[in-house]
Specification:
Layout: H1 10-17, H2 35-38, E1 47-53, H3 58-74, E2 78-84, H4 87-100, E3 106-110, H5 111-119, H6 127-132, H7 141-144, E4 147-148, E5 151-152, E6 155-167, H8 168-173, H9 183-192, E7 201-203, H10 214-223, H11 238-253, H12 267-275, E8 279-285, H13 289-295, E9 302-305, E10 317-325, H14 332-342, H15 345-355, E11 358-359, H16 368-371, H17 376-384, E12 388-389, H18 396-413, H19 418-441
Parallel strand pairs: 1-2, 1-3, 7-8, 10-12
Antiparallel strand pairs: 3-10, 4-5, 6-8, 6-9, 6-10, 6-11
Length: 442
C-alpha cells in the first residue's frame, strides 16, 4: 500500500527485494531497464547537476565513486558536482536550504527522514518523471515507501538491513558456540567477553554521534510498536520504555561490557575498536560488510548474525534509502537523470560490491556478490523472520537524535537517573504524537 505514515510490512519488503529462501528475484522483469532505455522517453539532461549525500565511510565513498563513474559514461552531457554532508548536520543544512529556497538539484532521502523532508517542502513531486522512466518498479514496497498521497518523492537506491558483526574466534575461545539470539544471551556474551583491566569489552555501544537510532529499536524490543501506525498515537508503556533504557545503559554502568568512552563513540570509534580487537561485537548494517571483511576473515574470525530478540520484538529493522529532486532545483531534469541512473540494477550492483548494501532493483538481488557470500543469508533470513520497517513518523529522527540520545548519555555519564531519562524520552514522544495526530486530522 502507498505510504501514509511510512509503514512497510516485512512480508511486502521480501517482495521488494525478491527474497524467497535465498536471494532469488521474485516478480522481477527480465532485467531492470538501463538509463539508456529511459532516454528514449526523457530527453538526456545537460549542464551542471549538484548532489548532496551523507557518505563518509571509505567503502561507501568507493562504491559511490563507482556509481558516479558509471553515470559519467551514461550521461556525458552532465557535470555532476557532489557535496558530502555528515548525518549529524544533514537536517540542519536541509532546513536552511529550504528556508533560503536554494538547494541542490538532487539529494539523498532516508525513509525515516522523508516525513519531515516532505513536510518542510524541500523535495519535489517527481511522479511525472517516474512514470516515464522504464526502470521504475512501482509494485515494490521499496518504491511505495517514497509515495505519499499518490505522489512519488524518491527513487530507491538500497535498503538498510541491521545485523550484528561478532568475533567468532573470541566467542569460541570462551566456549560460546553461536551468536546470541536474545538480548539476555547478548548481555551474557558481552559480559563474558569483557576484561576492563585489559581494555577488552564485549560490545561497542554507539553512545556518541549517530547513536540515537539504536534507542527506539531497544524500546520497540521491550514494548512492541511504540506508536499506532495509523493514528500516530503513542502506544508505548512507560515501564517497558524504562526497562529498555535501563538495559542499554547498564551494559556500561553495571556490566562494564562496553568501553568507558561510550558517550563519545560514534561510527568511527566503534569500528576502530572492533578492528583493533578491543571489542568483540558491534551492531550496524550490511553496508559495512566489505570493510569488516578487510579487517577480519569471514568464517573463522568474524561472522554476521541477526540482531537479538527482545522480550516482545526484535532489535533489528530494515529501511530503504532513495534519491530525491530538490523543489526549485536549477536542473531538475539532470537531477532526476542521476536519481534514475542510481535506481538501475547496474549502478546498484556496483555499489553493492563495494559496500554490501542490499539493492532495491529486483535484477540486482541475484548478483553473484550476494549469492556467493553465505553471510547475506543472515540478512534475508532476518527479513523473513521478524524484522520490521523503521519508524518514519514526522519528528521521529529529531526525537531519536535530540531527545533519546542526550537523555541516555546523561544516564551513561551518571549525571541523571535512568528513571528521569526514561520519563523525559517518554514525555517528548507523547508531545510529538499528539502534535502529529492533530496535524493528521486537521
Amino acid at each position: 500500500m502507498e505510504n501514509q505514515v511510512g509503514d512497510l510490512d516485512r512480508r511486502s519488503l521480501l517482495k521488494a527485494v525478491g527474497v524467497v529462501g535465498a536471494a532469488t528475484a521474485v516478480g522481477a522483469t527480465a532485467a531492470t531497464p538501463s538509463i539508456a532505455a529511459a532516454k528514449k522517453l526523457n530527453t538526456p539532461g545537460v549542464g551542471d547537476v549538484s548532489y548532496w549525500n551523507h557518505f563518509t565511510g571509505a567503502d561507501e565513498r568507493k562504491g559511490f565513486t563507482a556509481v558516479t563513474d558509471g553515470f559519467a559514461k551514461a550521461s556525458p552531457k552532465i557535470k555532476l558536482a557532489v557535496e558530502t554532508i555528515t548525518n549529524d548536520d544533514w537536517m540542519t543544512k536541509y532546513v536552511a536550504s529550504v528556508t533560503a529556497k536554494s538547494g541542490p538539484d538532487a539529494l539523498m532521502m532516508t525513509a525515516p527522514r522523508m516525513g519531515d523532508m516532505v513536510k518542510l517542502g524541500g523535495v519535489a513531486d517527481i511522479s511525472t518523471y517516474a512514470k516515464q522512466w522504464p526502470g521504475l518498479e512501482p509494485t515494490t514496497e521499496a518504491q511505495k515507501a517514497f509515495i505519499v498521497k499518490g505522489k512519488t518523492y524518491g527513487i530507491p537506491v538500497f535498503t538498510f538491513v541491521d545485523w550484528l558483526y561478532y568475533r567468532k574466534d573470541l566467542l569460541e575461545a570462551k566456549g560460546i558456540k553461536s551468536a546470541p539470539k536474545t538480548l539476555a544471551e547478548f548481555r551474557d556474551t558481552a559480559i563474558a567477553l569483557s576484561d576492563p583491566s585489559k581494555g577488552l569489552y564485549g560490545f561497542g555501544l554507539r553512545g556518541g554521534s549517530g547513536g540515537g537510532g539504536f534507542i527506539p529499536k531497544m524500546i520497540h524490543a521491550f514494548n512492541g510498536p511504540i506508536i499506532n501506525w495509523r493514528t500516530l498515537n503513542r502506544t508505548v508503556d512507560f515501564g517497558a520504555l524504562r526497562d529498555a533504557i535501563a538495559f542499554w545503559v547498564n551494559l556500561s554502568l553495571k556490566d562494564k561490557a562496553v568501553p568507558p568512552t561510550v558517550t563519545g563513540d560514534g561510527f568511527a570509534q566503534i569500528f576502530q575498536a572492533f578492528y583493533s580487537g578491543k571489542t568483540a561485537m558491534v551492531a550496524h548494517h550490511t553496508g559495512s560488510f566489505v570493510t569488516v571483511g578487510q579487517n577480519w576473515k569471514y568464517g573463522t574470525q568474524v561472522e554476521t548474525a541477526k540482531m537479538p530478540q527482545g522480550p516482545l520484538a526484535t532489535t533489528g529493522v530494515f529501511s530503504p534509502l532513495a534519491n530525491a529532486v530538490f523543489k526549485g532545483a536549477k536542473n531538475p531534469d539532470g537531477g532526476f537523470e542521476f536519481a534514475s541512473y542510481w535506481g538501475s540494477a547496474p549502478a546498484q550492483g556496483a555499489f553493492l560490491k563495494a559496500t554490501g548494501y542490499i539493492p532495491t532493483a529486483s535484477a540486482a538481488i541475484n548478483d553473484s556478490f550476494v549469492t556467493d557470500n553465505p553471510q547475506f543469508k543472515v540478512a534475508f533470513d532476518a527479513l523473513k523472520t521478524g524484522y520490521y520497517n523503521d519508524y518514519v513518523f514526522p519528528s521521529y529522527t529529531t526525537w531519536a537524535a535530540n531527545t533519546c540520545l542526550p537523555e541516555v548519555q546523561k544516564a551513561l555519564n551518571g549525571t541523571q537517573k535512568i528513571e528521569v531519562s526514561a520519563k523525559n524520552i517518554y514525555d517528548e514522544l507523547g508531545r510529538i504524537c499528539k502534535l502529529n495526530a492533530k496535524n493528521r486530522t486537521s
